[in-house]
Design a protein that fits this description.
Blueprint lengths: L46 H51 L3 H9 L9 H29 L6 H8 L2 H16 L3 H25 L4 H22 L1 H4 L10 H35 L1 H15 L3 H16 L2 H38 L7 H14 L2 H11 L3 H26 L1 H31 L1
């Protein structure tokens, strides 16, 4: 059953009058859609406007991210790009584990046990404390993993690891903004990270001729500055800053909720990381750099599904069961059609654009990209289905089951497929995993909806 969110007195009224978003991934995802549980969400009648605003900001950040790929491809070459991807991906896995701390704060605000007038600030203090403490532990682990990865090394991993804590901090602040329905500020934070990284890369790599470590330093600096901006935008939620209690039951509940909500994204990233490791061992680090281009281009098409999932969250939660199911089904069909249309265009232009923009060395990314596209299309509606399974029905473990199915199938197919077909084999394994995850999610949605209406 939906619950009433009680926001503390420190939250300004204006914050509750903005539009609202759930990640989601991240694409990530963006921010995971396994979130808002309140019965009254500002912006519930403005689905179209919310989608347009999210797409506008993503329309700004996506070219920035692609330009970063171009700069890395041109100035780092395939081997350098591969090293960069391996180092950053390890940091990203750890950051995604804690990426939902901010969303967990707002979710816990809706529990009946939280009646204190300043509970928002108290919970944000706990979330920031967890981000700092566990982020430092994760940074040490990243350096250790880098030392065991010949293509990276501990010194390169150290530069990347320095970006973990600020990464988690700005994602925590971003989640708080999203939960308070301040979507414009949330969009600013999402755009800041790639834009600042691009500026740093232009200076350190293009202007000063730096290599992989300079690119990683620019990436880390982008996260540091974004974290500062997120803290400024959320200052009304945490100021004055006080030392949090990190060992009490409330903090433990907060952490458990954040881990469950971030697990779906972590599963996807672990799958990707393991697949790249297999590819690096069998085909070399240059193959990782080339394959990462195909992955980044194809998965950027999940933006449409992420925007739709974000926009329908409130209506799905508050409609009648029949209307909620109907809206989810319509949104799934819309996501499939729009993503398939984009995929068709990408498939046609990729053979001409990739070699010209990135260089002839990256022409080999076209075939794995073609192989990835069907899986990316069928997996795109998973974000929409997660809104129903996790948000309305309150069963995020069902979305996690779909992600786990995708991971198991991908990992099982990776070694034989890559050994037999090389780069296209890696894409084939991913496509098989995407199809399995989508099938599981759809079956769970149909069964859950049938039981709910019985």
């Amino acid at each position: 059953m939906a619950r009433t969110t009680r926001i503390g007195s420190e939250v300004p009224t204006a914050a509750l009058d903005a539009t609202t978003n759930e990640s989601g991934m991240s694409a990530a995802p963006p921010v995971n859609p396994d979130l808002v549980r309140a019965p009254e969400v500002p912006g519930a009648r403005r689905v179209g406007r919310n989608v347009v605003e999210i797409l506008v900001f993503r329309g700004l950040s996506t070219p920035v991210a692609l330009l970063l790929v171009v700069l890395h491809a041109r100035f780092l070459e395939p081997a350098g790009r591969g090293t960069f991807v391996l180092a950053v991906l390890t940091v990203t896995i750890f950051s995604r584990i804690l990426s939902q701390l901010g969303v967990a704060v707002v979710n816990r605000m809706s529990e009946d046990a939280y009646d204190e007038p300043h509970e928002l600030a108290t919970l944000v203090h706990r979330a920031l404390g967890l981000a700092l403490g566990l982020g430092l532990v994760g940074s040490a682990a990243i350096v250790g993993i880098g030392a065991l990865t010949p293509a990276v090394g501990w010194t390169t991993a150290l530069v990347a690891a320095a970006g973990l804590v600020p990464n988690v901090v700005w994602q925590t602040g971003s989640g708080v903004l999203l939960g308070l329905a301040r979507i414009r500020a949330w969009n600013y934070v999402q755009l800041a990270s790639p834009a600042l990284t691009l500026a740093g890369t232009a200076l350190l790599v293009v202007g000063l001729g730096g290599g992989v470590r300079a690119a990683l330093a620019a990436w880390t600096a982008g996260h540091v500055l974004t974290a500062a901006g997120a803290l400024w935008l959320t200052r009304d939620a945490w100021h004055p800053l006080r030392l949090p209690a990190l060992g009490d039951a409330a903090t433990q509940l907060l952490l458990r909720l954040a881990l469950v909500m971030g697990a779906v994204q972590v599963f996807a990233l672990v799958t990707y990381r393991a697949e790249l490791v297999v590819l690096e061992r069998l085909e070399g680090v240059a193959a990782v750099g080339i394959y990462s281009i195909a992955m980044q281009v194809s998965e950027s098409m999940w933006l449409v599904g992420a925007a739709l999932a974000t926009a329908i969250t409130a209506p799905v939660v508050h409609h009648s069961e029949r209307d909620a199911v109907r809206l989810v089904r319509h949104s799934v069909v819309r996501t499939l059609l729009l993503t398939a249309g984009v995929a068709a265009v990408v498939a046609l232009v990729a053979p001409f654009v990739l070699p010209v923009v990135l260089g002839e060395d990256f022409g080999d990314a076209v075939e794995p990209l073609w192989t990835l596209l069907p899986g990316v299309v069928v997996y795109a509606p998973l974000q929409v289905l997660a809104v129903y399974l996790s948000v309305r029905r309150g069963r995020p473990r069902l979305a996690l089951a779909a992600a786990a199915a995708a991971m198991v199938v991908t990992l099982a197919a990776a070694v034989p497929a890559i050994d037999a077909f090389g780069l296209p084999g890696a894409a084939l394994a991913s496509t098989a995993g995407y199809a399995a995850g989508a099938a599981v999610a759809w079956v769970l949605f149909v069964r859950t909806a049938r039981v709910a209406r019985a």
